[in-house]
């Protein structure tokens, strides 16, 4: 089911949490709302699901506006950051609970609950209580519970944030598998750039209640629309020039003899080994930086080198080295 937001706004008194945003999420897409804390992404999700009332604008799900519809009438289901499983019910009965509230008979609701548990690979643990399940297993039960009512749109609020890094990666794969298998529209709130890039067909980068950019992950990374997107997504140097601001990917910076004509003399201020790559922080005289960037990092520029390239030409803090980039590697940013 497609989802469209038209001038969607949420105010809390004098404060504007979501500021007249427009967005189209195609049917069957995996969309991630990405941004820092307080940018309005969870409020947007809750307005889509009917858990917050919009101050202005419309939410359209499928063919109709749903501004006055209850959450149950929208064809959506919400998976919250807190799984909120009933501690006295086993996994099967937790999943079946919403069907029970709809008056569905015991045999039918348990059969549907088991089918959903099998989908999330939890059928063999259907009889366990939440306290007997790991965090990842509880998350799968919560996902099955959200899916059992047959929603057309699944809303996920930071569903992986409570998991350890290894399990988070594993569950990303499972979420994408289930979304593809069921053909549902997923709208997923996250503050993790890696998570959004790995999962989504559509990345929506939010800042201060507004949408900075909405595009596929490759476009967002390769061609960030604004300086905020370039900095938040990471992997870019944001550089202010007299004719405007540009972004240059850190892995496309050139050091030493490869810096080329017009290179800047830069001082190495940090070296971080990352396994397959080495991140080199650089400072250069005469390089103008946006005020926001000054607060984020002491290094004016970052160059990402392969481990082998760094091993062939090691660098240490205090070294001076030419740094440059190809003109084709620079991407102009909106003001």
TrEMBL record:
It is found in: Cell inner membrane. The keyword Nucleotide-binding applies. Its main location: membrane. Residues 3-233 form the ABC transporter domain. Pfam families: ABC_tran, TOBE_2. GO terms for molecular function: ABC-type transporter activity; ATP binding; ATP hydrolysis activity. Gene3D superfamilies: P-loop containing nucleotide triphosphate hydrolases (3.40.50.300). It is a peripheral membrane protein. GO terms for cellular component: ATP-binding cassette (ABC) transporter complex. Keywords: ATP-binding, Nucleotide-binding, Transport. It comes from the Bacteria. Belongs to the ABC transporter superfamily. This is Spermidine/putrescine transport system ATP-binding protein. The lineage of its organism: Bacteria, Pseudomonadati, Pseudomonadota, Alphaproteobacteria, Hyphomicrobiales.
């Amino acid at each position: 089911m497609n989802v469209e937001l038209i001038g969607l706004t949420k105010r809390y008194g004098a404060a504007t949490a979501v500021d007249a945003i427009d967005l189209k999420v195609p049917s069957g897409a995996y969309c991630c709302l990405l941004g820092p804390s307080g940018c309005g992404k969870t409020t947007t999700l809750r307005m889509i699901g009917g858990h917050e009332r919009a101050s202005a604008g419309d939410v359209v799900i499928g063919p109709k506006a749903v501004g006055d519809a209850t959450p149950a009438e929208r064809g959506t289901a919400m998976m919250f950051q807190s799984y909120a499983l009933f501690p006295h019910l086993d996994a099967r009965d937790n999943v079946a609970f919403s069907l029970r509230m709809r008056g569905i008979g015991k045999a039918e609701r348990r059969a549907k609950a088991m089918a959903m548990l099998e989908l999330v690979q939890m059928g063999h643990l259907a009889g366990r209580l939440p306290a007997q399940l790991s965090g990842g297993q509880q998350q799968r039960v919560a996902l099955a519970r959200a899916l059992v009512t047959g929603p057309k749109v699944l809303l996920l609020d930071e569903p992986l944030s409570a998991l350890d890094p290894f399990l988070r990666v594993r569950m990303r794969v499972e979420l994408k598998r289930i979304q593809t298998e069921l053909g549902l529209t997923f709208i997923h709130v996250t503050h993790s750039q890696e998570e959004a890039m790995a999962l989504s067909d559509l990345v929506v980068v939010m800042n201060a209640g507004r949408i900075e950019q909405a595009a596929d992950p490759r476009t967002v990374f390769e061609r960030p629309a604004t300086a905020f997107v370039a900095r938040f997504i990471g992997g870019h140097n944001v550089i202010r020039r007299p004719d405007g601001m540009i972004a240059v990917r850190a892995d496309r910076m050139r050091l030493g003899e490869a810096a080329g004509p017009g290179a800047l003399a830069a001082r190495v201020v940090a070296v971080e080994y990352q396994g397959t790559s080495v991140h080199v922080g650089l400072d250069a005289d005469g390089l103008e930086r946006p005020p926001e960037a000054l607060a984020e990092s002491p290094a004016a520029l970052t160059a990402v080198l392969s481990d082998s390239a760094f091993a062939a030409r090691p660098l240490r803090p205090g070294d001076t080295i030419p740094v440059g980039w190809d003109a084709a590697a620079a991407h102009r940013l909106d003001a």
